Amino acid sequence: MSSEGKRLFNIIILGVSFMFIFTAFQTCGNIAQTVITNLNNTDFHGSGYTSMAIIYGVFSASNLISPSVVAIVGPQFSMVVSGIFYSLYIAVFIQPATWAFYTASVFIGIAAAVLWTAQGNCLTVNSDENTIGRNSGVFWALLQFSLFFGNLYIYFAWQGKTHISESDRRTVFIALTVISLVGTVLFFLIRKQEDTKAPGDEDSANEILGESSSARNKMLKAVAAFKKSITLSFTKEMMLLSVTTAYTGLELTFFSGVYGTCIGAVNRFGSEEKSLIGLSGIFIGVGEILGGGIFGLLSKNSRFGRNPVVMLGILVHFIAFYLIFFNMPNDAPIAPMEGTNQVAYMNPSKEVAILCSFLLGLGDSCFNTQLLSILGFLYSEDSAPAFAIYKFVQSICAAVAYFYSNYFLLQWQLLIMVIVGFFGTMTFFTVEWQAAAALAARGSDYSSI
Fold this sequence. Notes:
It is built from 15 helices and no strands. It has helices spanning 3-39, 48-62, 66-73, 75-91, 98-125, 132-157, 166-186, 205-209, 215-233, 236-265, 273-297, 307-327, 350-378, 383-404, 410-442. It comes from Formicarius rufipectus.
């Protein structure tokens, strides 16, 4: 197999592994609050929103050390160990206990930081400036199949049910735990890819993440990775991209946790309200897959770079937010177990709710594929620290959003996303224009990114 063939093979295995793990985890996140609401009349007294706030809070802090961890143990082993912790978190729901639930939330936050830093490094090392757009799209599309498969099962298994029984819960979460473990094992198929950076380049990914038999050298590399993360976080480009990344954290919280809870709380949807959570997740996944396929696989045919894709993403999201505002009751995110009988500005429509799910997924793929692409392009020599900063900002904003989701009415959550989304789009445009100017100065073809 050619060198390029090995690289593409690694990207596909990376995407498939993440697909299995996040089929389990994202389905778990999408139904967690609904399942927990049914448990809270027992000895279990946890909150799905609080758990996710803990996960993303720890996740954000752990990104400060994740490049050092990856530097010491390597990206492949980092992803394997992280996958095991994802599986343990999901397994907690088989026989829930409040202490185990929140403890697992802390550990998965650490694991997530290491997993995504290692993923960013693996993606970048297996790409160059001509293939980073394509590879980002391939990875993203494969990853987002996770939203499709898990939620398809939830839709059919929970159709017509207004209460989730203990048997239903155990069956779902045993299956999700096994699926997560399958994804973890697949990481072993990733083939070692030699770094193509110049051997004398002190800032190369090989310098930061290369293997060494010397424990002292590994510690030096860990310290170097940490210092590089701090240095990069204060560069102009990274600070501008952090505003865009902050928006992806806020809307990640909304579509992966809050919106499904809103749908499940609307009593006017009748006996389908719980199964609609699964259908919503399916259409979020369809939007993500479509966006990843179109904007990643066809990126080489774009003559205009990344900005039009991000512009499409924000327009699609604004349309979704407008329709959700009119369709969903204001108290839906914080409704009690009995749900809500309130009505917004129109009678709740299942069709509009599912359309909004698709739009949320499509818009999210627009932002994330382009962020992955521009980070891989701008920081090809410092991939692990750059992706750690990206996940640090995204996760801390997701944690904040999960925290205020316990208290804020729907209209205020939507308003926050509109404001941050607008400014995040503007800052992305600024960095992309600078990237285009840098390419022109080097005489490269802008359409190749």
